[in-house]
Amino acid sequence: MTRIRILAALLAPTIVLAACGGGSATPGTVPAGTDLEVHAVPGLRFDMESYEVAAGESLVAYVNEDSIHHTLVVVQDGTTVAGFELSIYGKGEIDSGTVALEPGTYELLCTVPGHQGMKATLTVG
Ligand SMILES: [Cu+2]
To answer: Fewer Cβ atoms within 10 Å of its own Cβ: the N or the C terminal residue of the chain?
Structure first.
């Protein structure tokens, strides 16, 4: 009985961690039909300083070329766009999800503490 309880306690954080992503993070390939592809690269950076995507609903893929946890959110005028957060943990992992954006200028950010340098401009036109 005690042994089962210990096992459950060990497994629980893993399950919570897996459930908190915005999409479905899996190692593999960028989904077909991806409109915007962002890579997290070593050195706490995105692969580019600016990105562009068409207005409307976009499929965003977030690729981990690094080996630590990163997130991706979209922010406009200090407000995070609701309902969209991608999360990648290990090297080669890809998370994807859709976000609908009006034309304008946005920021892409990683929300992991200490990753304030992971910032890029997203132009939606
Ligand atoms: Cu990060």
So the answer is: N
Q: Retrieve residue 84's tokens.
A: 């969209």
The number of folded domains in the chain is 1
Ligand 1 center from residue 70 Cα (angstroms): 4
Would you state the structure tokens that stand for residue 73, as one six-digit string? 């959110």
Distance (Å) from CA 43 to ligand 1 centroid: 9
Distance 112 CA to ligand 1 centre (A): 5
Instruction: State the DSSP code for 30.
Output: P
Whole-prediction pTM value?
0.79
Beta strand 26-27 with 86-88 is unpaired
Domain range for 39 is 2-124
Asked if 101 and 55 count as a contact pair (C-beta separation under 8 A), the reply is yes
